[in-house]
Amino acid sequence: MKRILLLGYILFLLCGYTYSQQRVDPRYYPGVSINGIYWSEYNVDAPGTFTTTPEAYGMYYQWNSKIGLPKTGDVSDKWNPVNFIMHWEKTNDPCPDGWRIPTEADICASFDDTKVSCKSTQWNGMPGARFTDKTTGGSIFFPETGFRTEIDVRHDSVDSHYWTAHRIEGGPMSELYNILNFFNNMWFLSPSPYGLDVAGPVRCIRERPPCECMERDTSVTIS
Fold it and tell me: Which is nearest to 172 in space by CA: 195, 146, 149?
């Protein structure tokens, strides 16, 4: 009897782990509502897909590019010249169908500090920021991914470089840069201090609210 119970417990743990590592289907995955805007809990991996866990970096993308770049390895054959277009073109958006790169307005509305808290935390040892809707309790985690150059990844686990969909007029790229300030749990938008010749991660929002028939993946919780 004890052996059966032990076997059942082991299978429960293994099945639970496998389920939590499954890649969500973006068509049916609702995301998490943060102040009325539905965010993915995962970064973009290959174009049109999400990572399998919230702390995973996913792939890095140059401005207005749909070419995913890995964290390590030579990417010189995929590295494109700087594109100075003002808005990320829809055809180059790496988000899955039904999702898109957020604008500055989306970010400011989502993370209004009167309605949403920002807290420095870790997910499976990965430093980052957790945003929690004060009304619903819904949370999303952003890992501090740093940014990618043609040579390597820099500022890994130090700060972040999440793109927004628009550039700042007369200036460099606007982005979710340093999404988490380690010292005071603050986030802010900032022009890229490294210009456009870098690649960053992408976090998507839904183009429209999910249908009521959709159910959120509850296999992942943020502590």
Answer: 195
Looking at the chain, the whole-number percentage of residues with pLDDT higher than 90 is: 38
Q: Compute the distance between CA of residue 28 and CA of residue 121 in angstroms, rounded to an integer.
A: 28
Please answer whether residues 95 and 202 qualify as being in contact, where contact means their C-beta atoms are separated by less than 8 angstroms. Answer: yes
Residues 6+ apart with CB under 8 A from 74: none
d(CA 36, CA 155): 31
Is the pTM for the entire model greater than 0.85? no
Residue with the two structure tokens 């009897």: 1
Q: Residue 51 corresponds to which tokens in the numbers above?
A: 């990572």
Residue 19's contacts (CB-CB under 8 Å, 6 or more residues apart) are 219
Q: How confident is the model at residue 219 (pLDDT cuts 50, 70, 90)?
A: low
